[in-house]
Amino acid sequence: MLQPLFTPSVQHTLDVIGIFVFAISGALLAVRKNFDVFGIAVLAEVTALGGGLFRDVVIGAVPPAAFTDLGYFITPLFAALLVIFLHPHVERIQVGVNVFDAAGLGLFCVTGTTKAFAYGLNLTASAALGLATAVGGGVLRDVLANEVPSLLRWDRDLYAVPAIVGACIVVLCIHYDALTPFTSGVAVVVAFVLRLLAMRYHWRAPRAWNRRSTVTEE
Amino acid sequence: MLQPLFTPSVQHTLDVIGIFVFAISGALLAVRKNFDVFGIAVLAEVTALGGGLFRDVVIGAVPPAAFTDLGYFITPLFAALLVIFLHPHVERIQVGVNVFDAAGLGLFCVTGTTKAFAYGLNLTASAALGLATAVGGGVLRDVLANEVPSLLRWDRDLYAVPAIVGACIVVLCIHYDALTPFTSGVAVVVAFVLRLLAMRYHWRAPRAWNRRSTVTEE
Amino acid sequence: MLQPLFTPSVQHTLDVIGIFVFAISGALLAVRKNFDVFGIAVLAEVTALGGGLFRDVVIGAVPPAAFTDLGYFITPLFAALLVIFLHPHVERIQVGVNVFDAAGLGLFCVTGTTKAFAYGLNLTASAALGLATAVGGGVLRDVLANEVPSLLRWDRDLYAVPAIVGACIVVLCIHYDALTPFTSGVAVVVAFVLRLLAMRYHWRAPRAWNRRSTVTEE
What we know:
Three copies of one chain form a homotrimer. By secondary structure, chain A is mainly α. Chain A has one domain. The first copy, chain A, contains eight helices and no strands. Chain A has helices at 8-32, 37-59, 65-68, 70-92, 94-118, 123-144, 160-175, 181-201. The first copy, chain A, starts with 7 loop residues before the first helix and ends in a 17-residue tail after the last helix. Chain B binds chain C through residues 30-40, 42-43, 53, 57, 60, 62-64, 67-68, 70, 73-74, 83-85, 87-88, 91, 143-146, and chain C through 57-60, 119-122, 124-125, 128-129, 139, 143, 146-149, 151-154, 160-161, 204-211, 213-215, 217-218. Chains A, B, C: Belongs to the UPF0126 family. Chains A, B, C: It is found in: Cell membrane.
């Protein structure tokens, strides 16, 4: 059995930080799409809790943590309030938001992978669910806002790869019986730094080979 | 433990009415989007059963009632048939449809909250799931029809707020041990009347404060 | 209790073939939408596994087979790789892909219905879930690609009907206690051939009656 990686209160604090920054990104998109204040709150909740909700439903951890922990539910509402009243300022510090979002990405891919493994999934499936936990909220956000998920678009900086790397480090550590708070922290930091570098240097993934032969630019 | 609010047959009748009116709204959108008869049936089913399906999967009540009760499954097909053959008439009585839809909203937010609490969720989470039960089908309908969910748009009359108020009345009643068929009925009626007033007087929610400073109208 | 229809290894091989061809269709759409290689892989996975994932979550078979069987997870990645490097050739053999997709449709509607019944759902609900298994992945594919699901559009050849017929044959066989590998195979072949005929002769479903009276062409 896996030992808890962090003390519960540390784990909870890290989760709430990740939820908060994801909620900010959902609320900002809602403002850009001209939604009303309830739409902003809904999109903040979905972005922040969607990935973990999907993971918990898939592994059978029902009711999901998103609905049993009051802090998880309140945090996105607080983020939505901040954006509603301060969004010009929040947009001005977009760089800061992106840094926090990268931290949330690193954190969620690690905790998602760990939780999936603790519920009996194999290593590959655990890594896949860790990735889904980290990126699922953002995909739901874009689907509700009626946009192509930025996760899938070629003209966005790498987002999935840092989460995949973080999740893979975790499953390698589990495989070699080396998962400790320290190695987990390393996985979080590696995913976090990779995402920061991808944003700084605009790393992008290639598209299909020989693409131009049959497909036109849209 | 909660007592059942209504006798099973009364509860079932109320549920079927709510499912029917939601299915009508899904089928009408499908006709407007030019879907074929199977698309109309699918959108009617999804709109009518989607909210309850989401709630049941989240609270672990599987298989969901939508798949175990034949009446829940047949009702949307009947609504789809009506719309396919009579949709000019159904559209002409759009006001009537809206009134029924408001009734479904009031009913589903109350029964959704009650069922979530009966499955062990805390009061806040129960209210959130009651809201999700009431509005979830409509959101799925709009996502499948490739439109921005009308729940989120600022230029639509208040829809979430009546459901939130109804769900909050239920959790307050639970908290003060006062949930009876009478108080539940009051919650249904309050949500219903609020939605009717919102449609009559075009109540809308504000958007983000100081919005125009950075965001252009779309 | 239902007997297993096929030996496990035969069943598994058939499943993997169905997953593979659905993944090809997801990956091809991703290339057309100009997604990067990770977007192509994600859309291949979602298209191939989405229908079965939905079915398993609804019937409470968690963790779903998509996450417990390594072969189910790897197969779509292989299909994505093929499309990334060979997509002009894959597109040239679109007819071949459509034939395989029809085979996957027939297979999934039968195995989906059988599995749902084995988990205790009634006959109607089992047929509905069989249909959802067969078409769910394609609907998720189109939603993520921000398009109206081709399942719902009137200008596409019949897709749901063959799956409905296949699922209905299975539940009739169950009802009359006649479900054997042979009758299941008949159901698969009937759905498969119906889909091929629908594509060959462009069978389409009608839209709502008297549609032009109030709705304009889009």
